[in-house]
Design a protein that fits this description.
Layout lengths: L1 E5 L6 H12 L3 E3 H11 L2 H10 L7 H12 L8 E4 L5 H14 L5 E6 L2 H9 L1 E4 L5 E3 L18 E2 L6 H15 L1 H9 L2 E5 L4 H12 L4
Parallel strand pairs: 1-3, 1-4, 2-3, 4-8
Antiparallel strand pairs: 5-6, 5-7
Helix pairs in contact: 1-9, 2-3, 4-5, 6-7
The protein binds BIS(adenosine)-5'-pentaphosphate (AP5), magnesium ion and zinc ion (ZN).
Pfam families: ADK, ADK_lid
Function: Catalyzes the reversible transfer of the terminal phosphate group between ATP and AMP. Plays an important role in cellular energy homeostasis and in adenine nucleotide metabolism.
Organism: Romboutsia maritimum
Length: 216
């Protein structure tokens, strides 16, 4: 399976990705996670990416596309992969297509998680993430058993730097302007499944599995 997860900030891409990669046993490639790891490690890429991420803007394509295509050429992606947060504009999608064509690889599914704009800000602002294992919570919709502490590993929970109301609103606007057109792009290719992301986390997952099928 070679899957793209599409959807606005706070749609539940990361939350659903965790279940999908476990069920289908494929690597989870999240450009946002890769950039955040680089920021934490203080790399040159991290320093450049941070300037854009803190403003809610897209990191330039030159810093993003090669990162993903290099990752796809690694051995563990031979069995399939799931891209979360990439592509994010038509130019990235076209560059990905060119790369995949040359590598003789075909995408199998695009899962488009749809959530109304009015819900997205509270989803992102209430998000908390485990420092140790990366598990994602929400202070209201998916609260940890003990405030500020991860259920899985007892790690400390933190809030992402770009999860404040102002930056989230900017990220949503960038999504509407630059990323949403990709739904049309992949509809034309006939590989998109639109999923209602306003249901419970479990029901969204069931709909995604129904769209992907039980095949591995
Ligand atoms: P990225 O990390 O990809 O962030 P995003 O797209 O803004 O999406 P989020 O991670 O905020 O949301 P999500 O859909 O994963 O939601 P989650 O499952 O966590 O990108 C960050 C930045 O990196 C970008 O702004 C850009 O600068 C840069 N970047 C990344 N990729 C790039 C690219 N390709 N090109 C250029 N720049 C790039 O859920 C959110 C919350 O809601 C959680 O608290 C969760 O518990 C809760 N929740 C989830 N599902 C439900 C549900 N069904 N009901 C109730 N609550 C729910
Ligand atoms: Mg995410
Ligand atoms: Zn944890």
């Amino acid at each position: 399976m070679r899957i793209i997860l599409l959807g606005p900030p706070g749609a539940g891409k990361g939350t659903q990705a965790a279940g999908i990669v476990e069920k289908y046993n494929i690597p989870h490639i999240s450009t946002g996670d890769i950039f955040r790891k680089n920021i934490k490690e203080g790399t040159d890429l991290g320093k450049k990416a941070k300037e854009y991420m803190d403003q809610g803007l897209l990191v330039p394509d030159e810093l993003t596309v090669g990162l993903v295509t290099d990752r796809i050429t690694q051995k563990d992606c031979e069995k399939g992969f799931m891209l979360d947060g990439f592509p994010r504009n038509v130019s990235q999608a076209e560059q990905l297509d060119t790369f995949l064509k040359e590598a003789n690889i075909e995408l199998t599914n695009v899962i488009n998680i749809e959530v109304d704009k009015s819900i997205l800000v509270s989803r992102a602002v209430g998000r908390r993430i485990c420092k140790s294992c990366g598990a994602t919570y929400h202070i209201e919709f998916n609260a940890p058993q003990n405030e500020g502490i991860c259920n899985v590993c007892q790690g400390e929970l933190y809030q992402r730097a770009d999860d404040n109301e102002e930056t989230v609103s900017k990220r949503i606007q960038v999504y509407l302007d630059e990323t949403k057109p990709l739904a049309d792009y992949y509809t034309k290719k006939g590989i998109i499944s639109n999923i209602n992301g306003e249901q419970s986390i479990d029901n969204v997952f069931k709909d995604i599995v129904a769209a992907l099928g039980s095949e591995k």
